[in-house]
C-alpha cells in the first residue's frame, strides 16, 4: 500500500505557483480532479504529476484503505463497498478528504478518483467549498481498462472480473455524468489514456503548463504579456 498523501518534492523548473487567497477561495487551494474509469491510469499519472508539478496527490481509494487499517468503525462498510464495487457514502469520503487536505502543508491538490457521482460532487461544492480548476479525464476503452485491472497484480480484492464489471457499471452510470457536468462548464481536459504511461504524461504536462501560466506571478514575463 502506498502512503495516502504523496506530497511532491517539486522541481524548481516545473512547480506551479500557489494561488492568491480570495473570498471565493479562502484557503487559496488549487484543485485538479483526475477522473476516468477503473484502470484508466489515474494513480499512475497522479504519481507522476505530484512530484513534477509540486502537488499533493490524494487518492480517495487510498484514504479509504487507510481508514480500514486504523480499525475504525467504518472499516467493514468500506471493505464491503470495495468488494462489491459500490461507492462509499459521500459524507465519509468528504470527511476523509477534508482531513487530508487540512493536514497537508501543500495547497495544491491532485485528487485521484473523486467525485464519482452527483452526490460526491454536490458534497464537495457545499461542504468543502471546492471548485476544481480543471478536471483531467483519462479516456480509455472498456477492453483496455479490463485488461489492465486483470494484470494489475496488487492483490486487490476488487480486481476480479465480477467486481470489475460492477465498477465499470458505476463508472458509466454515475461518474461519466459528473464528467459531462464539468464538460458543460468548459472544465474538462480530455486525454487519450490508451497510450504508454510516458506518452500520456507528456500530454498531461502541456495542460499543467497552461495552469502554471495562468497562476504565474505578476513578475512572470509570460503572465504580463497576456
Ligand atoms: N498507459 C498505460 N499503459 C499500460 N498500462 C498502464 C497504463 N497506465 C496504467 N497502467 C497499468 O494499469 C493498471 C491500472 O492503473 P492504475 O493507475 O492503478 O489505474 P486507476 O488508478 O485508474 O485504477 C496498473 O497495473 C498500471 O501499471
Ligand atoms: O470517491 C470514491 C473513491 C473510491 N471509492 C471506493 O474505493 C474503491 C476503489 O477505488 P480506487 O480509486 O482505488 O480504484 P479504481 O476503481 O479507480 O481502480 C471504489 O470501487 C469504491 O468502492 C468510493 O467509494 N468513492
Automatic annotation (TrEMBL):
EC code: 2.7.4.3
HAMAP family: Adenylate_kinase_Adk (MF_00235)
GO BP annotations, alphabetical order: 'de novo' pyrimidine nucleobase biosynthetic process; pyrimidine nucleotide biosynthetic process
Keywords for the protein's UniProt record, in alphabetical order: ATP-binding, Cytoplasm, Kinase, Nucleotide-binding, Nucleus, Pyrimidine biosynthesis, Transferase
SUPFAM superfamilies linked to this entry: P-loop containing nucleoside triphosphate hydrolases (SSF52540)
InterPro entries xrefs: Adenylat/UMP-CMP_kin, Adenylat_kinase_CS, P-loop_NTPase, UMP_CMP_kinase
Protein's name in the database: adenylate kinase
Class of this enzyme: transferase
Chain spans, region Disordered: 1-22
Family: Belongs to the adenylate kinase family.
Xref: Gene3D superfamilies: P-loop containing nucleotide triphosphate hydrolases
UniProt entry tagged with the keyword Lipoprotein: no
Substrates-to-products reaction catalysed: UMP + ATP = UDP + ADP
Entry annotated with the keyword Cell wall biogenesis/degradation: no
A UniProt-annotated Pfam family: ADK
Organism encoding this protein: Prunus armeniaca (Apricot)
A GO term, aspect molecular function: ATP binding
Amino acid at each position: 500500500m502506498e502512503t495516502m498523501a504523496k506530497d511532491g518534492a517539486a522541481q524548481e523548473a516545473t512547480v506551479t505557483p500557489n494561488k492568491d487567497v480570495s473570498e471565493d477561495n479562502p484557503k487559496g487551494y488549487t484543485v485538479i480532479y483526475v477522473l476516468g474509469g477503473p484502470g484508466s491510469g489515474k494513480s499512475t499519472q497522479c504519481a507522476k504529476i505530484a512530484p513534477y508539478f509540486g502537488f499533493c496527490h490524494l487518492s480517495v481509494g487510498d484514504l479509504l484503505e487507510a481508514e480500514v487499517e486504523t480499525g475504525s468503525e467504518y472499516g467493514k462498510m468500506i471493505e464491503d463497498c470495495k468488494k462489491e464495487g459500490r461507492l462509499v457514502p459521500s459524507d465519509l469520503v468528504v470527511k476523509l478528504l477534508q482531513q487530508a487536505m487540512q493536514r497537508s502543508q501543500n495547497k495544491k491538490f491532485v485528487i485521484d478518483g473523486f467525485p464519482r457521482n452527483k452526490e460526491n460532487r454536490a458534497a464537495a461544492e457545499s461542504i468543502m467549498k471546492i471548485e476544481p480548476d480543471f478536471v483531467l479525464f483519462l479516456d480509455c476503452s472498456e477492453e483496455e481498462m479490463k485488461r489492465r485491472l486483470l494484470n494489475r497484480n496488487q492483490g486487490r480484492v476488487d480486481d476480479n472480473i465480477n467486481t470489475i464489471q460492477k465498477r465499470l457499471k458505476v463508472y458509466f452510470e454515475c461518474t461519466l455524468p459528473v464528467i459531462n457536468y464539468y464538460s458543460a462548464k468548459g472544465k474538462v481536459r480530455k486525454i487519450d489514456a490508451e497510450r504508454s504511461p510516458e506518452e500520456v504524461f507528456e500530454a498531461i504536462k502541456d495542460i499543467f503548463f497552461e495552469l502554471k501560466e495562468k497562476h504565474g506571478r505578476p513578475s512572470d514575463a509570460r503572465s504580463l504579456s497576456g
